[in-house]
Amino acid sequence: MSGKTWTAFCPMCQRVSEVIIPTDEYLHLLERTGEPIQDVLTSLSDADRELVMTGICNPCWNFHDDHNATQHLMHDENI
Q1: N or C: which end of the chain has fewer CB within 10 A?
Q2: From the CB of residue 23, how many other CB atoms can be counted at a distance below 10 Å?
Q3: What gap in Å lies between CA 10 and CA 1, rounded to an integer?
């Protein structure tokens, strides 16, 4: 796949991560149209879009999702 390599520094673990954004989607992103990122970067996963928006890497993003899911399950069991 050709495109632009987006490099980010994770604020949670200090890991440097990269994702390749297809050229057409990258150019659309630069236009800053105000559209939701999922409508602009359609070929990227949720975790990769999070990396572009916040710099949070996939392992930290997935840990956050898994942790929240566990917390919700524990809360539901206590009801």
Answers
A1: C
A2: 12
A3: 24
Residue 10 · residue 17 · CB < 8 Å: yes
Find out whether 17 and 52 touch, Cβ atoms under 8 Å. Answer: no
Strands 3-9 and 16-22: antiparallel
pLDDT > 70? residue 64: no
Q: Name the percent of the chain in helix, strand, coil, to the closest 5.
A: 50, 20, 30
- Can you tell me which residue has the tokens 């987006």? 6
**Residue 54: how many CB atoms within 10 A of its CB?**
14
- Say whether pLDDT at 70 is over 60: no
What six digits make up the tokens of 53? 């928006």
pLDDT tens for residues 2-53?
A: 899 999 999 989 999 999 999 999 999 999 889 999 999 999 999 999 999 9
